[in-house]
Write a structure and sequence with these properties.
Elements lengths: L1 H27 L2 E8 L23 E2 L4 E9 L2 E8 L8 H8 L10 E5 L27 H18 L4 E11 L4 E3 L9 E9 L4 E7 L13 E2 L2 H14 L4 E5 L6 E3 L7 H22 L8 E9 L13 H5 L3 H11 L3 E9 L2 E5 L3 E2 L1 H13 L4 E5 L8 E2 L2 H5 L3 H5 L7 H14 L5
Parallel strand pairs: 2-10, 4-5, 9-11, 15-17, 16-18
Antiparallel strand pairs: 1-3, 1-6, 3-4, 6-8, 7-12, 8-9, 13-14, 14-15
Helix pairs in contact: 2-3, 4-5, 8-11
């Protein structure tokens, strides 16, 4: 009789446990999707190109190649995260909060969105998107409300589109060292030569996305080049999408590129130089992509912290470098900083399996970035990377030695004093180490 009762209980309880275990299995998977949006404004908008004060906010004269924003949305159980790459110079501090405000009904917050501009110098002017910029200075850039509205509407649509029709994915990351593709433009010894590629496939093997992290300024074009272009990162992404096919989304994000320059070879024009370099980087990325074997058992974790920044200040050597380019006195720059530079910033980090992206809100010198990556590797992270210019641009981020020794242009546009680099380094590590698997 007892055996009959036990058998009956087992049969009754099985239906209760099966949904529970099925739910647990599904919760451990990462589901994902991508979307893209054309971020090229109409030329009739008369928008300025960012990157060089010498342009004096003159509008773009044409479109060499279009610029894009791309989003990868990841869900795991109740957690979700969006990584957004943009073919733009950088973003001011108002863009992300205003984007989140427009997405509030969809549970997106400043904690689970990471915006990663490429730092392209033939794309939208950062200060033209800053609604605190009411100075109407051509050297600094002139705020364009219609341009800000265009960008915000585009990004809202992008994230909403990516956050639909998600499917389970497999994810893997790899890294190689490239010896001759970048250099330290200040002739410091630090050069970040790590190329890190993340491959994301659907369960059936169809590719969804490739993420490429490489540290170098997109600065083949100069102040005289007035056609819109995504620069060499644009060529890198387009080539990868064409070679891999299957509607894959290629997403590039920069590293601690504050003093890192690309090493180009050949090309009759600046645009041709960018094309040659972008294709060369695509070749290396494609080779690495094909060596990666993505897996399904991947964890998604993220963390975020608001950091109070040091007092804003003008570098003593500003007039020798940045002052000349932007035609500003130290007194005028101080007024600009008080209006346009944030008093605090947010640090974001996200871990996707063996990949850990540490978001840094500005242009960090490579030596500091390498220190962060080295410490995270020692703590067990296989593929740590810096996501440079994350969410907003606060200034160049240097060591105290670089700041005090007047590291050329970089020191003159470092706006928070000699301690900024160490503060960002320590705070970024504090945010990132919480994501290390116990």
């Amino acid at each position: 009789m007892k055996n009959i009762v036990k058998s009956w209980l087992k049969l009754c309880l099985i239906p209760l446990f099966v949904p529970f275990f099925a739910s647990a299995i599904q919760a451990s998977e990462i589901a994902a999707n991508c979307a893209t949006v054309d971020l090229t404004p109409p030329l009739e908008m008369q928008f300025a190109l960012g990157g060089y004060g010498e342009r004096m906010s003159k509008p773009a004269e044409g479109i060499h190649d279009r610029i894009w924003a791309k989003a990868l949305v990841l869900h795991q159980g109740a957690k979700k995260y969006a990584i957004v790459t943009l073919d733009v110079l950088a973003l001011p501090s108002n863009v992300k909060p205003q984007l989140v405000q427009r997405l509030a009904a969809t549970e997106w917050t400043e904690e689970n969105i990471l915006l990663l501009p490429s730092h392209c110098h033939t794309s939208l002017d950062m200060t033209a998107l800053n609604d605190k910029n009411l100075l109407k200075s051509p050297q600094i850039g002139i705020f364009q409300p219609e341009l800000l509205e265009f960008v915000l509407n585009s990004l809202v649509k992008l994230i909403k589109d990516a956050d639909t029709n998600l499917e389970p994915v497999r994810i893997g990351t790899g890294r190689i060292t490239l010896e001759v593709m970048n250099r330290n433009r200040r002739k410091d010894p630090a050069v970040d030569r790590y190329l890190t590629v993340t491959r994301i496939d659907f369960m059936n093997g169809k590719p969804l996305a490739i993420l490429v992290n490489w540290t170098a300024h997109p600065t083949f074009m100069d102040e005289k080049d007035m056609f819109v272009s995504a620069g060499w990162p644009g060529y890198l992404q387009r080539e990868l999408q064409q070679w891999i096919g299957d509607d894959i989304t290629a997403m590039y994000y920069n590293g601690a590129e504050g003093d890192q320059a690309p090493v180009g070879k050949g090309g009759a024009s600046h645009y041709e130089k960018a094309e040659i370099y972008g294709r060369a980087m695509a070749v290396q990325s494609y080779k690495l992509y094909n060596l990666i074997e993505p897996v399904a058992d991947v964890e998604l974790e993220f963390n975020s912290k608001i950091l109070a920044l040091p007092k804003r200040r003008v570098h003593p050597l500003f007039m020798e470098t940045g002052g000349e380019e932007y035609n500003l006195t130290p007194e005028a720059l101080e007024a600009v900083l008080n209006v346009m530079s944030p008093a605090s910033t947010r640090l974001n980090a996200v871990r996707i399996g063996d990949l850990l992206i540490v978001g840094v809100p500005g242009e960090m010198a490579a030596g500091l970035g390498l220190e962060i990556k080295g410490e995270l590797r020692q703590k067990g992270i296989k593929f740590p990377v810096i996501g440079g210019l994350a969410n907003e641009w606060i200034s160049y981020i240097l060591t105290a030695e670089q700041y005090n020794n007047g590291a050329g242009y970089e020191s003159s546009v470092s706006f928070y004093g000699e301690e900024l680099g160490q503060i960002i380094r320590e705070s970024a590590l504090a945010v990132a180490v919480t994501l290390i698997r116990k």
